[in-house]
Structure formats: structure tokens, C-alpha cells
Design a protein that fits this description.
Shape: globular
Number of helices: 9
Order of helices and strands: HHHHHHHHH
Number of strands: 0
Structural class: mainly alpha
Helix content: over 70%
Strand content: under 5%
Length: 206
């Protein structure tokens, strides 16, 4: 089962397995409909119909569609973190920060290409459409600092947090550019982004 978002994004956290499965169906339906109709045309009733649950089940967890989108963004971040963690565990510590950077960028690109609804909400910075607020990138940078500090054998201090924030902001801007240029992401722009990140991180982390 896909991870459910943290309880703080929900009106009520699921306790039983059946309730968690219902929440998963609701978020899956929300993601699919975001791709199909966009955020403006999204409605809680349409999500309930697509998920096959009573409308009351949606309102049990969410007061409105914005809260659903926020919860989907949180689930995306949990899934992203899990995927990066799994990839780094398989790497068994080899390659240092370069392996970690490739894992982070590659998993982000994979979600951009395959995760339903991700193009609109990703980790929370695209609703309303086109709005890109700083908070989600801070949240991603904090998560990466906590996740990668042990892998890199570095203290998760403010210097490392700032380093990851700059890297996340840079990657976010350039990846968005790549996907504006080409539906699957312009490979030349992506490779330029990768080289820029390597050059910056080499100066700071080597």
C-alpha cells in the first residue's frame, strides 16, 4: 500500500486498515483527476465517485479539495523519500554524495514522468497552477538533510541544510524548465542541471 500522508494534513487520521485503504483510494482518485481535468475542475464529489466511496468519507478526511491536494503532495514527499532511501540502501554507501545526488534527481524525474497528479502538486508548490512557494522546497531540503547526513557522514547542521536548500531550489527550477520544453523532460537541460549540481556540491561537500 502507498504511504498515507502525515496525520497533521488530515481532519482525522485513519486508524483501521480499512480506513487507511479508503484514504489511499481517495488520494489515488484525486491524483488521476488532477491529470484528467486539472485543479480548477476538481471536486470532492468527483473524487468520491472515482474512488467509489461515499462523499462523507472524503469529508471525514478533508474539508476541501485544497486539503486533498496538500495531502497528495505530502504523500508524494513520503514516497520520494522512501524511493531514495531504498536506492541508497542498495548502493551500500558507495559513491558518496555523487551517488546520493543521482538518486535524488533520478527519483524526482521518475515521479515527474510517472506519478499521477505530480505535475500539478509535486511536493506542494504548484496549486494554484503556476504558483511556486518556497515552503515545499524548504521541506524537501530538510528531509534530504535528515536522510542523507548519515549516508554522507556529515552533521545535519545549518550549513548542510543550506547546501541542500540551494541544490533543491536549483534542481526545481531547471527540472521545471526541462518539462516546459519537452513533455518527458528535455534531456540536454536535465544533463546541464546535473552538471551544475555536481559542480556546486563538489565545491561544498568534497
Amino acid at each position: 500500500m502507498k504511504p498515507v500522508p502525515h496525520a497533521t494534513s488530515l481532519r482525522r487520521a485513519p486508524v483501521q486498515r480499512r480506513s487507511a485503504e479508503r484514504l489511499t483510494r481517495i488520494l489515488d482518485a484525486c491524483a488521476d483527476l488532477l491529470d484528467e481535468v486539472g485543479y480548477d475542475a476538481l471536486s470532492t464529489r468527483a473524487v468520491a465517485l472515482r474512488a467509489g466511496v461515499p462523499i462523507g468519507s472524503v469529508y471525514r478526511f478533508f474539508g476541501n479539495k485544497r486539503q486533498m491536494a496538500d495531502a497528495l503532495a505530502q504523500r508524494n514527499l513520503e514516497r520520494f523519500t522512501d524511493n531514495v532511501t531504498e536506492r541508497l540502501q542498495k548502493a551500500t554507501g558507495e559513491g558518496g554524495w555523487r551517488t546520493a545526488m543521482d538518486a535524488v534527481l533520478d527519483e524526482y524525474l521518475a515521479m515527474k514522468r510517472t506519478a499521477p497528479g505530480f505535475s500539478l502538486v509535486d511536493f506542494g508548490n504548484q496549486i494554484p497552477v503556476g504558483a511556486r512557494h518556497a515552503e515545499p522546497n524548504h521541506r524537501v531540503a530538510d528531509r534530504l538533510t535528515d536522510l542523507l547526513s548519515g549516508y554522507l557522514d556529515r552533521e545535519p547542521d545549518e550549513d548542510l541544510r543550506r547546501t541542500f536548500l540551494i541544490a533543491v531550489e536549483t534542481a526545481d527550477t531547471l527540472v521545471h524548465l526541462a518539462f516546459r520544453v519537452a513533455p518527458e523532460g528535455d534531456e540536454k537541460i536535465i544533463e546541464e542541471a546535473r552538471e551544475m549540481l555536481r559542480a556546486y556540491l563538489a565545491r561544498v561537500l568534497d
